[in-house]
Amino acid sequence: MEYQNKRGGRVKLHSILTPPSEFEHYEKGDALYAMELALSLEKLTNEKLLNLHNVAEQNNDAQMVDFVESEFLTKQVEAIKKISEYVSQLRRVGKGHGVWHFDQMLLNEGA
After folding, report:
1. What is the pTM of this model?
2. Class of domain 28-110
3. Can you give the residue ranges of the Ferritin-like diiron domain (predicted)?
4. Which of 3, 6, 15, 111 has the most CB atoms at less than 10 Å from its CB?
């Protein structure tokens, strides 16, 4: 929004649909399910950023192209890669005790 205002644009905020509740899904609390949802969201975000990048290119807005590339796209690709690794690991460990070890690994990464 700050960037939009700097460029003389106007920010319009719209309501966002509420995602389905975790309690409405039979796999509630399942780590693999949560990571797969997170991966889907990251991929959707990347797709939207690429669309924004294309619009900026089509309108010869080099500053916006650079802004999207430098501020978002690299980080987005890194996030997709990391969450994809988590999904692969969770598929390998299965449910139960393996998920506990996965949780411990995540805790140690943050330390």
Report:
1. 0.75
2. mainly alpha
3. 1-94
4. 3
